[in-house]
Amino acid sequence: MKRRTFVKNAVLGSFAAIIGTELVFGSKMPYGYTPLALQETDPFKLFNKNKEMVVLNDKPWNIEAQAHLLDDKITPNSSMFIRNNGLVPENINPKKWTLTIDGESVKNKKTYTLAELKSKFQQHTYQLTIECGGNGRNEFDPPAKGNQWTVGAVHCASWTGVRLRDVLEDAGIKKDAVYIGFHAIDQHLSGDPKKEPISRGCPMFKALQDETILAFKMNGEEIPLAHGYPLRLVVGGWPASVSGKWINRISVRNIVHDGEKMTGSSYKVPCKPVAPGEKVKDEDMCIIESMPVKSIVTYPKTGATLKKDSSLKIRGHAWAGELEVTKMEYSIDFGATWKSCTIEKPVNRLSWQHFSASINFPKAGYYEVWAKATDAKGVSQPMLTPGWNPKGYLNNACHRIAVKIV
Amino acid sequence: MSTNSEFQKKIKKAERTAYIATAFSFLASILLLFTVYDPTFSVFGKKEVTPIYTEVVEDEDKIENGIHLRTGLIDAEGLMTVVNNCTNCHSAKLVTQNRMNAERWNATIKWMQETQNLWDLGANQEIIVNYLTTNYPPLKKGRRMNLTNIDWYDLKE
Fold this sequence. Notes:
The complex is a heterodimer. Helix content of chain A is 10%, strand content 31%. By secondary structure, chain A is mainly beta. Chain A has a domain at 294-405: Immunoglobulin-like. The longest helix of chain A is centred in the N-terminal third of the chain and has 17 residues, at 3-19. Chain A is globular and about 70 Å long. Chain B is mainly alpha-helical. Chain B folds into two domains: 9-49, no CATH class; 63-135, Cytochrome Bc1 Complex, Chain D, domain 2. Helix content of chain B is 55%, strand content 5%. In chain B, strands 1-2-3 form a three-stranded antiparallel β-sheet, with no helix packed on it. The longest helix of chain B is centred in the N-terminal third of the chain and has 35 residues, at 3-37. Strand 17 (304-306) of chain A pairs parallel with strand 4 (153-154) of chain B.
């Protein structure tokens, strides 16, 4: 046995003793890699998250907010959901970080350092709504496979970076370009270095929008590691999976990008509506683009008890993917009547909008306050869970909170 | 004092630290070798080191109130087969938050084998699927569930 192999096996053996399980694919573990199980195990400390965040999965890390934690107009890191497909990378050296633009439809393959990106291109700051495609999955019946997100897989932080368009144009885009696909450095859960955990993208029209940026700052500071440090593609209004983290390469494709989680049934819904539980072939599934109209009541926290004759001030946010929210309403009688809320304009396109209302209740008892947003095309949120789909995406049913008047 | 003896003192100190470090790493490697090749410390018969290891073993798969503590899985027939095959790559939380019938679990296993490097489960597949459908059956939710687990509080404006 070679000495190095022996040492590695011995080390793996001791890992097994500590973690209490055999590390499958341990032999494929990169040299110098420390399994997450041996590191800081408190995710709230590890990622600086609010203690009330809910951990859905710890391998990979998937953590969501509760509605009342999203009350800020600009979501702070402490309340931002984490959805990871692979393992959070480590030992990132921003000085050596590069971004390569390649692909069939790029005129000149080019590589930029972070410093070059920052100095060569104009910087922009936008507040962008990013919602996980599977937010609300827990309500589908029959249940859909995957992390059972409830309402908290959405955030709207302030992102600073350079426009993807400026960078792509600097490298040169061929006329046959149809899609971009990102690549990142995170590692597949199985430890297989040949596998990418996720490599998604978007059509050229979305890639070239003003607000589609390569960000290196979040809320004015360096992006937290779990959210993509040192470089994240931020694509507001579309499923969060398009906003790739830890980006080191973007391919300009002459076909719809076929990276990991672009094919099969990932981030796709049936092209035609189906009955709950119906089997759908992969070829009958269509890629999700803009997210649907949705809103969330962030104040008060559900469960508020208040005295009769006092009025309740509610507030929250509403968003509608590529569109603007034009109307916001609430109901305290399960949709029999709706009253309007005040809704602010977005600070920029693709930012969520803030709403508020003051509610008076007719008599003591149990109430639910339901909120409903309507987008610029007149499409509203459904009160019921919308069309069932095999992977449980796009649940934009009205959010509600429980209130008791005593 | 002269810088020379100061320097020598520092060297001595560094030397001592080096000795201690070497001793520690030596002890650590001995322990490591035992963990790998002689986890029961059988060479020593029943010496005092043994209980330390036993303690760890007990903790690993401790069951409390019918729950396997390390994974949070329900203690029932097939538990360890699930622990050993389904919690290596991802957390048990991903398993238990998904409530599916046998057909969909089998399809999910097939998907993991085709795309996620999951190994052939052989006869264990039936044990695993039985465990999951028995202990984590699908729940009926209808078109919208009632709000539950409401934590009532007095709202102070």
